[in-house]
Amino acid sequence: MAKVNRTRYAVLGMLSFRPMSGYEMKKYIDNSIIHFWQENFGRIYPVLRSLEREGLATKQVDQEEGRPVRHVYSITEKGRRELARWLLLPAERPNWRIELLLKLFFGSQVSVANMIRKVRSEKAFCRHTLETFQQLEDHIKSHESGTEIPYGLITLSYGQHYYRAVEAWCDETLERLRRFEGEGEPARSNGFGKQ
After folding, report:
1. Domains contained in the chain, number
2. CB of 56 within 8 A of CB of 79?
3. What is the rounded CA–CA span in Å between residue 190 and residue 107?
4. pLDDT-derived band of residue 94, with 50, 70 and 90 as boundaries?
5. What pLDDT is stored for residue 195 in this prediction?
6. Domain final position from 88, 122, 140
7. Residue 141 lies in a domain
8. pLDDT at 83
């Protein structure tokens, strides 16, 4: 099966909200979906050009005196149909690569104190992210309206649940690691009880 270019659908989705330039789109992404979906200019601009070639988006060139030229893209009806087609497909499972878990898996090769520092750092990150999410939720509820808002709150809720779960896991892991520290380093193994 051919690999799906998901940036293409992230960009079409953004254009379904309103016309925007690549720069505006990156800003919008960084202020909305950044916690679960990241895109950079190096992916956004080629996709915008490709969508225009395929007739899924149109481009308008805005030139104001004393300002840089702006290329503002809008989704076409064909683009809306393509976005809807993709939205109806099943979502692929995430292919996670979590470096903290990889380091913990091999953690018996270094000191327990080192692993404790890493997990404390992860817990602090979770706490900070949850505070950011709360501010974002408060802002959305008090300042914004539109049909996409309930869906934005649903994705925000996923992030809140996720980081609360990771924070709870950090507490549990820190407790285990402190026991290791108190009992002396655990025996080196491959993680499955074999020496």
Report:
1. 2
2. yes
3. 10
4. confident
5. 37
6. 88
7. yes
8. 96
